[in-house]
Amino acid sequence: MLFQKDEIALRRMRDDMYDYQLMAKWLTDEKVLEFYEGRDNPFPLERIIETYKPIIRGNELIVACIFYYRNVPIGYLQYYALNDLPETDRQLYYLDKTNNVYGIDLLIGETNYWNQGIGTKMLSAVIEYIFEQLQAVKIVIDPDVSNARAIRCYEKCGFVKVKLLTAHQLHEGQHSDCWLMAINRKKSLH
Ligand SMILES: CC(C)(COP(=O)(O)OP(=O)(O)OC[C@H]1O[C@@H](n2cnc3c(N)ncnc32)[C@H](O)[C@@H]1OP(=O)(O)O)[C@@H](O)C(=O)NCCC(=O)NCCS
Predict the structure, then answer these.
(1) Mean pLDDT across the stretch 63-73?
(2) How far does residue 145's CA lie from ligand 1's centre (Å)?
(3) Distance 14 CA to ligand 1 centre (A)
(4) 69 lies in some domain
(5) Which of 34, 49, 110, 186 lies at a CB distance of 3.0 to 4.6 Å from 74, suitable for a disulfide?
(6) Residue 163: which domain range?
(7) Residue whose CA is closest, atom 6 of ligand 1?
(8) Is residue 155 part of a domain?
(9) How many structural domains compose the chain?
(10) Band of pLDDT at residue 189, cut at 50, 70 and 90
(11) How far apart are CA 147 and CA 124, in angstroms?
């Protein structure tokens, strides 16, 4: 377990069928795909294994995690140090410095858990973990401009919009704009 806080827990994704099947369930659900990967881009089991096995077994540039709410696995979260990304990926964020800057992506795959404040609780706990345990100075996240729920959730967690990233991602056949949102480590954290 990476951490457990109140009703929320986060653990690393495992190289086993249970986790692959969870991900395949979530990333073939049109309601989820509309906001993550795209409805024209589903990930059935074989593709999940092909995509996530190397991440789980690899050199951990990206840390893939499953998160729980009241002991039920409900979603996926990944984080990564921007400095570990290839130069071309890092440049997409237009940041002057990327030392100790982390990026996060997440989805609640069980859609009946949306809009209940769980994403905000989860992300707030992850922010605390990354700042305190990984000595991060900044965390960034890049929601599509049209994803109002995600943007609102991130603002509730303390992220602020920093820069409009034009045509940042290819989503359902369109190059769509995203907000670069960031949160800085509080000066009081050592
Ligand atoms: C984005 C996500 C993680 C947020 O988690 P969540 O638990 O649903 O979010 P919360 O309930 O904590 O907060 C959502 C906020 O957005 C608001 N909201 C919901 N739909 C909205 C909309 N269409 N427009 C504006 N605000 C909206 C909610 O009212 C709530 O704000 P409030 O507490 O001020 O009322 C989750 O919805 C999810 O996984 N969505 C699908 C995948 C996705 O979008 N991933 C993010 C890719 S960047």
Answers:
(1) 98
(2) 13
(3) 27
(4) yes
(5) 110
(6) 3-184
(7) 119
(8) yes
(9) 1
(10) low
(11) 19
What is the per-residue pLDDT for 58?
Answer: 84
- Does 189 map to a domain? no
Cα 108 to ligand 1 centre (Å): 10
Cα–Cα distance measured from residue 32 to residue 106, given in angstroms and rounded to the nearest whole number: 11
Residue 190 falls inside a structural domain? no
Helix ranges (H only) for 87-135 are: 87-91, 118-133
CB 136, CB 130: distance < 8 Å: yes
Collapsing DSSP to helix, strand or coil, 13 comes out as: coil
Is there a contact between 10 and 126 (Cβ–Cβ < 8 Å)?
yes
Q: How far apart are CA 148 and CA 144, in angstroms?
A: 8
Q: Please report, for the domain that includes residue 89, its CATH number.
A: 3.40.630.30
Whether the CB of 123 sits within 6 Å of ligand 1: no
Long-range contact pairs involving 87-95 (C-beta distance under 8 Å, separation at least 24): 92/165, 92/168, 93/140, 93/142, 93/165, 93/180, 94/163, 94/165, 94/180, 95/140
Other CB atoms within 10 Å distance of the CB of residue 162: 17
The answer to whether the predicted template modeling score (pTM) of the entire model surpasses 0.90 is yes
Of all residues in the chain, what percent are helix, strand and coil, respectively (each to 5)? Answer: 35, 35, 35
